[in-house]
Design goal:
Length: about 240
């Protein structure tokens, strides 16, 4: 009986040591992966990385990680005038094959999401003077931009100072996001003195997307434009 008890205690202690070693190893690997992703140029600043699955060490031996979670709240994508902040970026990468020193990694499948606030989205659109005909009649200043907000399922709505402008739908193709021409409200049409009640569509391109993923859809939400990402056989590092 006493021998059985000692053996049981030994197994428990050994298991605890192994689990502790496993958790230490995964912590080191997560930090190294975050550094390598930063160096790869896919993401800046350094993201948070969480390697899922247990035990981790057996995944190291096979050099294939089941699931890796990446998150960041401070990403910027795009170039020049199309630069924009991505809020609350989250991605799940499955089937991640890595080299022994984490210098390269390929992802079998990845998906993710992020948010562009309406204030940031408005800065991607041209000034109101370029969008709204006879804008000068409202005397709101040459650099004034449309104020955007949620307009219902699939829609965003715009206002110009205190004046409601109208709403538009948003869609994407590849990395290009298009805001279809805002349908001017009756009040807006009267204020600017136009009979054409539809503004021209406006497009912008989101380049250098995080973690090598592709933009799959954009959806207006209460707090901004929700972006969805996906990708297969993505080269994450190296």
């Amino acid at each position: 009986m006493r021998g059985w008890l000692k053996a049981t205690i030994g197994v428990v202690v050994l298991s605890g040591v192994l689990v502790g070693a496993d958790r230490i190893a995964v912590g080191v690997a997560e930090d190294e992966a975050a550094e390598q992703i930063l160096k790869s140029g896919w993401m800046s600043p350094k993201p948070d990385v969480s390697i899922e699955g247990f035990p981790f060490l057996t995944q190291v031996v096979s050099r294939k990680l089941d699931d890796v979670l990446i998150s960041s709240d401070g990403l910027t994508v795009g170039e020049g005038e199309d630069k924009v902040d991505l809020r609350a970026f989250r991605a799940r990468l499955s089937g991640v094959e890595v080299s022994g020193n984490m210098s390269s990694a390929t992802v079998a499948h990845g998906s993710g999401s992020a948010l562009i606030t309406y204030a940031d989205l408005a800065r991607l659109l041209p000034p109101a003077s370029e969008l709204v005909p006879n804008f000068g009649r409202l005397s709101l200043g040459a650099g004034t931009r449309l104020s955007l907000s949620y307009g219902g399922p699939g829609k965003i709505k715009a206002s110009l100072g205190p004046f409601p402008v109208g709403d538009a739908s948003v869609h994407s193709k590849g990395t290009t996001v298009t805001v279809d021409g805002f349908e001017l409200s009756t009040m807006a049409s009267l204020l600017v003195g136009v009979s054409d009640k539809s503004l021209e569509p406006v497009s912008f391109t989101l380049s250098e997307l995080p973690a090598g993923l592709n933009l799959s859809s954009v959806t207006p939400q209460e707090d901004g434009l929700q972006l969805a990402f996906d990708g297969k056989d993505v080269k994450l590092i190296g």
